[in-house]
Amino acid sequence: MKRGTWHHERTYVYPAILTSDEDGISVEFPDLPGCLTCGATTEEAIVMARDALALHLWSMEDDGDQIPDFADLRSAPGQLAALVDVWTPDSFFTEVAQ
User: Fold this and answer.
1) 2: which residues sit within 8 A by CB, 6+ positions away?
2) CA–centroid distance for 64 within its chain
3) In terms of DSSP bridges, do strands 24-28 and 36-39 run parallel, antiparallel, or are they unpaired?
4) Which DSSP symbol is given to 64?
5) Which has the closest alpha carbon to 92: 5, 10, 32?
6) Backbone angle region of 94, left / alpha / beta, with phi > 0 → left and psi within -120 to 50 → alpha
7) DSSP secondary structure string, 22-62?
8) Cβ partners under 8 Å of residue 93, min gap 6
9) pTM of the complete model beyond 0.70
10) What is the pLDDT of residues 17-68, one digit of tens each?
């Protein structure tokens, strides 16, 4: 198994950085540029993060891009670091592509 990213049967785990602001919580995946989302609450932000992560990884696979390992999980003061996991079965990729 490669360091960082764990994937088995299309299961991936990546660190996300959640940043709270007066208008909600933004979520970014430092190792996946452009994979961003947000939510009104922490719970909603995590749900949105799973959706964003699954679609971002599907897009990378569809484009033939290499799925990167992730670096160390670190956050700055005022931020929350969390591991976000997604399981994307083959049927998910078929349904999204149609």
Assistant:
1) 69
2) 18
3) antiparallel
4) T
5) 10
6) alpha
7) TTEEEEE-TTSTT-EEEESSHHHHHHHHHHHHHHHHHHHHH
8) 10, 58, 61, 62
9) yes
10) 999 999 999 999 999 999 999 999 999 999 999 999 999 998 888 888 988 8
